[in-house]
Amino acid sequence: MNILDKIIVDKKREVILKKSIIPVSQLEASVFFEKKTISLSDNLRNSTSGIIAEHKRRSPSKAEINYNFTVEEVTKGYETAGACGISVLTDGKYFGGSLDDLLLARATVNIPLLRKEFIVDEYQILEAKAHGADLILLIAAVLTREEIKSLSEFSKNLGLEVLLEVHNQEELEKSIMPTLDMIGVNNRNLKTFEVSLDFSKQLAAQIPDDFVKVSESGISSIEAINELKPFGYKGFLIGENFMKTDNAGKAAAEFISKL
């Protein structure tokens, strides 16, 4: 069993437990439930930098990245730096995140927030909306075509945008449907953790222009972004590169101004 399979097994258990503790009615009573969402796809289409900056404390591939910042410091720094949107990791066991991080980010900034999570159930999408997210992530590697369809439709009905993550041709082919807004290519193989920008380059031509193209993982330089832009990429998800510094917001600001 690879790390991704383990995460999904744990996630399904976690969702069952949460459903037994917090009813859907409680999530729907959140002040954010009626809030109009902010479009990340629009921001990316109109941006010159396309940076989606990430709040991430740790990951399975890098045990600890940074625990020294508050969510407010990081997200405010990202917004001030000119990021198009912010990705907030909410998985606790493997990434050290939580839904409280999303809530704190929403209270701090007024730019699109992505709930970065391993979504396997509609309940998690309700949680995302209730905690102030503007969009969710769906990972093609762990979902069937039918699941992608039903989860993306459910999201759209709540006014949330959908970023679908793929890693290869097969995942892309099974996933393309009109209820997606953005298609992200993960440059990290989630099974082996190997990272290469070639994944983004190879899949670029297969992604229809109706979707905003996003490149994720392994982007640590201006050169990498300039390499990917000719392939039609408008969004670039960067987490570790900013988080591993002494000041994530400052690192993002310097990076974006160079772009």
From TrEMBL:
<keyword id="KW-0210">Decarboxylase</keyword>
<protein>
    <recommendedName>
        <fullName>Indole-3-glycerol phosphate synthase</fullName>
        <ecNumber>4.1.1.48</ecNumber>
    </recommendedName>
</protein>
<keyword id="KW-0456">Lyase</keyword>
<keyword id="KW-0057">Aromatic amino acid biosynthesis</keyword>
<keyword id="KW-0028">Amino-acid biosynthesis</keyword>
<feature type="domain" description="Indole-3-glycerol phosphate synthase">
    <location>
        <begin position="4"/>
        <end position="254"/>
    </location>
</feature>
<dbReference type="InterPro" id="IPR045186">
    <property type="entry name" value="Indole-3-glycerol_P_synth"/>
</dbReference>
<comment type="pathway">
    <text>Amino-acid biosynthesis; L-tryptophan biosynthesis; L-tryptophan from chorismate: step 4/5.</text>
</comment>
<dbReference type="GO" id="GO:0000162">
    <property type="term" value="P:L-tryptophan biosynthetic process"/>
</dbReference>
<dbReference type="GO" id="GO:0004425">
    <property type="term" value="F:indole-3-glycerol-phosphate synthase activity"/>
</dbReference>
<dbReference type="InterPro" id="IPR013798">
    <property type="entry name" value="Indole-3-glycerol_P_synth_dom"/>
</dbReference>
<dbReference type="InterPro" id="IPR013785">
    <property type="entry name" value="Aldolase_TIM"/>
</dbReference>
<comment type="similarity">
    <text>Belongs to the TrpC family.</text>
</comment>
<dbReference type="InterPro" id="IPR011060">
    <property type="entry name" value="RibuloseP-bd_barrel"/>
</dbReference>
<keyword id="KW-0822">Tryptophan biosynthesis</keyword>
<dbReference type="Pfam" id="PF00218">
    <property type="entry name" value="IGPS"/>
</dbReference>
<dbReference type="GO" id="GO:0004640">
    <property type="term" value="F:phosphoribosylanthranilate isomerase activity"/>
</dbReference>
